[in-house]
């Protein structure tokens, strides 16, 4: 004999069959929606944005186009990784601001960290071997 909770759970499982489900992006969209909802107490116009984020997240969870949802997740994860790298760079630039100088490699745009107060130095990029001369 089944109780109503088991019946409900079974119905939900059959409903979710073949659908994408919850992933990191959906979770973050839900959290963002909640934050925007709280902000909309002060700026009422934001209410629509909170609703849109919630609808987007819900659409992704019940979507049957699993491939497209996975591609979205990959793009989002790449975006997060890039953001994290930039943040770490900013942190280390701030931490070493008195002892090091930071230059950008003209060849590959990589950041180069050189100790300050060494006069004119030849800097070789570790990634692309491009050489630059700078005063530190
Ligand atoms: Zn380089």
Task: Provide the descriptors you would attach to this structure in a database record.
single chain; 136 residues; alpha+beta; two-stranded antiparallel ribbon; two-stranded antiparallel sheet; 4 helices; elongated; binds zinc ion
Helix and strand layout, with pairings?
Layout lengths: L3 H13 L7 H16 L7 H16 L3 H30 L4 E5 L6 E5 L4 E5 L6 E5 L1
Antiparallel strand pairs: 1-2, 3-4
Helix pairs in contact: 2-3
Description:
This protein has helices spanning 4-16, 24-39, 47-62, 66-95, and strands spanning 100-104, 111-115, 120-124, 131-135. With 136 residues, it is of the alpha+beta class. The chain has two domains: 19-87, no CATH class; 96-136, no CATH class. A two-stranded antiparallel ribbon has the order 1-2. α2 (24-39) runs antiparallel to α3. The termini are far apart. Bound molecules: zinc ion. Zinc ion (ZN) binds at residues 105, 107-108, 110, 125, 127-128, 130.
- The computed structural class is alpha+beta
Oligomeric category: single chain
Strand runs, count: 4
Rough outline = elongated
How many helical elements?
Answer: 4
Would you tell me the overall average pLDDT?
94
Bound molecules: zinc ion
Query: Uncertain segments of ≥5 residues (pLDDT<50)?
Result: none
Q: Looking across the biggest beta sheet, what order are the strands in?
A: 1-2
Percentage of β-strand residues: 5-15%
What is the H/E order? HHHHEEEE
Q: How far is the first residue's CA from the last residue's CA? A: 79 Å
The helix fraction, in percent, is: 55-70%
Largest sheet geometry: 2 strands, antiparallel
Number of structural units classed as domains: 2
Radius of gyration: 25 Å
């Amino acid at each position: 004999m089944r109780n109503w909770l088991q019946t409900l759970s079974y119905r939900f499982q059959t409903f979710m069959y073949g659908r994408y489900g919850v992933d990191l992006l959906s979770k973050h969209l839900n959290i963002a929606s909640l934050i925007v909802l709280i902000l909309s107490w002060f700026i009422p116009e934001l209410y629509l944005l909170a609703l849109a984020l919630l609808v987007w997240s819900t659409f992704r969870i019940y979507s049957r186009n699993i491939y497209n949802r996975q591609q979205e997740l990959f793009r989002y994860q790449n975006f997060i990784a890039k953001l994290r790298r930039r943040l770490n760079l900013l942190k280390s630039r701030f931490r070493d601001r008195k002892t090091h100088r930071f230059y950008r490699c003209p060849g590959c745009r990589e950041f180069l960290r050189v100790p300050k107060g060494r006069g004119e130095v030849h800097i070789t990029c570790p990634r692309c071997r491009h050489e630059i001369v700078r005063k530190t």
